[in-house]
Design goal:
The complex is a heterodimer of chains A (328) and B (250). By secondary structure, chain A is mainly alpha-helical. Helices cover 76% and strands 0% of the residues of chain A. In chain A, helix 3 packs parallel to helix 9 and helix 9 runs antiparallel to helix 12 (228-250). Chain B contains nine helices and eleven strands. In chain B, strands 5-6-7-3-8-9 form a six-stranded mixed β-sheet, sandwiched between helices. Chain B has a three-stranded antiparallel β-sheet with strand order 2-1-4, with helices on one face. In chain B, strands 10-11 form a two-stranded antiparallel sheet. In chain B, strand 1 (4-13) and strand 2 (16-26) form a beta hairpin. Classes of the chains: A mainly alpha (328), B alpha/beta (250). Chain A binds chain B through residues 77, 80, 209, 212-217, 219-220, 222-227, 269-272, and chain B through 47, 50, 52, 68-69, 71-73, 75-77, 79, 82-89, 92-93, 96-97, 99-100, 102, 104, 148, 152.
Amino acid sequence: MTRRWLWPLLIATVLIAAVLGIAVGTTTIPPARIAAALTGHGDPIDRAILLDLRLPRVLLGFLVGAMLGVGGAALQGYLRNPLAEPSVLGASNGAALGAVIALYFGLAQRHDAMLPLLGIAGALAALGMLFLLAGRSESPLTLILAGIAVSTLAGAGISLALNLSPNPFAAMEIATWLLGSLEDRSIRHVALALPCVAIGLLLLTGQSRALDALTLGEDGAAALGIDLRRVRWRLLLGVAIGVGGAVAVSGAIGFVGLIVPHLIRPLTDRRPSAVLWPSALAGGALLLLADLAVRLIPTSSELKLGVVTAFLGVPVFLVHLMRERRLW
Amino acid sequence: MVTIAADHLAVTLGGRRVVEDVSVHLAPRQLVGILGPNGAGKSTFVRALLGLIRHGGTVTIDGERPDRATIARQIAYLPQGQTLHWPLSVERLVALGRLPHLTPWSRLSARDHEAITRAMARTDVTMLADRIATELSGGERARVLLARALAVEASALVADEPLASLDPAHQIEGMELLRAEADAGGLVIAVLHDLTLAARFCDRLLVFAQGRLVADGAPATVLTPELLASVYGITALRADGLIVPFDRLR
């Protein structure tokens, strides 16, 4: 059974992280003024900082984290591989390449929405390639191999853009974006990411029965009435749209999709479906806390979110690995 | 009660004909054993019956060509060498057998829970309910997997080598469970390798060789020395219902 305290704990963590995310920043605003600003009066500068800067950042952090968490949980269930994460199918790199193209050709400066839109287009293009390479096959292995191929190709495209950058500043801009960050995101970014993430979450969590049935392997699941082709199609579309949309607004933030299901799984009955929604909350909370760390750790040049999650991810993964090995 | 019929069933895998022109009519209340050497097309045949692979010819259930959801409710399937990909508890694993009966977004109903309890009681795994299925012994695991298939409460059960890697006592127990299923009105189709057990427990045997159905009938009429020689290439010692493979002919 899923631990009784799991849901209350996750909800409380998300709420606390969200409140801290709004309250804490480089400008210290006392609680009384925060309350005043949020209830509609108070200093207009406070209001601008809280509602235009920090609130979108918190919303976006939660959305991106939730999507990455569910994406990882769904793919680990579908591929029956504890090392799967959204990036293995190339959606993350595809989205990143789309965004890099926007930066490289200067399209990003023309309009705010260009970068995320090209990011989403990149994720969908990656999905199209994935289907061409592995669409008809039903084995998880061909899908992983095709995903690695697509991911590597997109990665090569990103390297090419860095390589051919006309000047160091352009290369720097791309490299900085690739590290992943929630800084300076507006409510417009939220408006772009929200529908993508919502569609992604619905498509992925809608496959929960099929993921459970796949515990018995492909034949076992099919004999239970699961239409594997439809499941694959929806799952890949969910990852491409959801993770593509998330990466397009935040940059590539690694490790969240990989670690979060591992943190949640031991607290459930280990059915793939039981891991899905808790991974959404845990992923959101993790990203909000990581974003707090970005703001609180004093560094000379700004710390990037993707760097923090990578540093967080390694110890979590090592602890898990050690526990697993002792079990065997 | 369900009748499954295959008409000119044929399967081609990777350009090779694996099952060739098989027509059978399988009636309820029977334990049908499927015999044949490795690679004879036994597993492919049952997978085609279940609609798990593309095939030529037709398969009908009670005279109709079923869709995937209907097959899932009518025929339970216990695959060969079932691997379990997640360490679920026994009860959770058996509950997977109820998936064909659930409507989208619904939870397990009281009827589902009854079916799960019944299936676990029938295979005597009730006391294992909270154990982790991947950590069981071979015999316990086989019984749990059978309970998973029985929880579907389908009219037919297809078991692909359900006795593999079981000790003699558990093999007999497994056959008794399949026999009881058939006696209760079900159609049970089991891919087997043990000739003595097949002869003792089955009502009917289908023998495959090189993708073709080469013999079909009651065990006593099917398992002749000539058939064992031509299909398996062996001689067997026989006494009182025992058929013990003894020597290779080729």
